[in-house]
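Supplementary Data S3. Sequence and structure tokens for construct A.
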Amino acid sequence: MWDFLVRRWRVEAALWVCYWNAIGRDDRPSIRYCADHSLLLSVFWLMALVGGLMALGTVVQFLQGGCR
């Protein structure tokens, strides 16, 4: 089990590096491949989306309440 987790972490780390390097090169097929095969990237973008929505909600709530 430990070997599986170590191998999986190494694969995820390699896909993470592959993804960001592919973005730097603007290599669309590599970006798609890395994104499709990486759980870490999916979680990262999901958290970025949730964080953005929470920030937007905070701004909207502030604007609705005014400056009290």
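Construct B, processed identically:
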Amino acid sequence: MRLRLLAVWMLTTGTAAAQNLKVTVRSDRQPLVYACVYVNGKAAAITDTLGIALLPEGEWEAGDTLSASYVGTMPDRQVIDGRIGRSGECELVLQEMYTLTAEEVTVKADIEKLFRKNVREVSACIDGLWGEARLEAYATMEFADADSSRHRVEGWITTHRNEVSPRNYNDYNYRLTIKARPPFDSMQTELLREINDLLRWTTAPAHHFQERDLQGVTRQIGYLGKRDGCRIFRITFPTIRLWWLSEASLFIRIVARIDERTKLLRSVESEYLSADMELSVKLRADYVPYRLSAGWGTGRICMVPLTVDYRASRNGRLMEGTLSRSRFVSPKRIRKPEDLYVPYMPQAK
């Protein structure tokens, strides 16, 4: 018992003098810019252009677990011990999931040109345009509240954005029909609202990966090579402001897999993180193409989410959801009497 207390005392006193903890995040190739650093699983800092993040005194202590994530890499973690505390420095190395061949290395000189040559412009939507189609999919969503009780809803959903009155096609909130097992309580209503957010976030990377500029901020783009018939690009945006998130600033990181044959988006791995660390969204999605046949977008290729894995942290609450077995269905399809119809409800401020 004395030895254990002595070890704890040495660990804590060894970190007492540290003001900041310098965390360096890199891959096996280079520093990782705008990587997210976590303390005990909670977002705590973003690395700068040198791949360095500073954790102020009071935001970490001996025994905490440091970790980092960056799309397209394997995460790394370390426990803060006496050595790290005394030195005030820690390095996390994230292994790249994709490796360039010797031939592919030569194309890195002009990645923008390579991107434009191999990526076809697409749209992303849930209900086509002018309500010409609805997305039908099997959805799940769950979270744990303050007392660790788990709340979950699952079932077949169908979107009905074209039924919103007055029609507002710039509004990304969807009415949902869901077949869910009773009882249907207020918590499940909140979970349905989160499914709505899942749908909105699924369209975001399909738009953002092909944008050169967002709100005046220029993207940074990297080429990660080929795999399974796809060219793989990593797109990063430094902190930007998006109108649909009010005054929040976001860091955006996307790995997009582009089909070599069709030049269409096949899948994404994306991460969105607010500058205040209160919002974090990680999303993996596979897409299928759908050609629009109505409205001013006639003939345009739209990417429809086929499967989605969703993980969002908002103000300390963690939400996790999935979407699977998706398909577009005719808007003329009539709801069955036993379907539960959930109208759009404004999000909680």
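DSSP finds five helices and 23 strands in the chain. The two ends are 50 Å apart (CA to CA).
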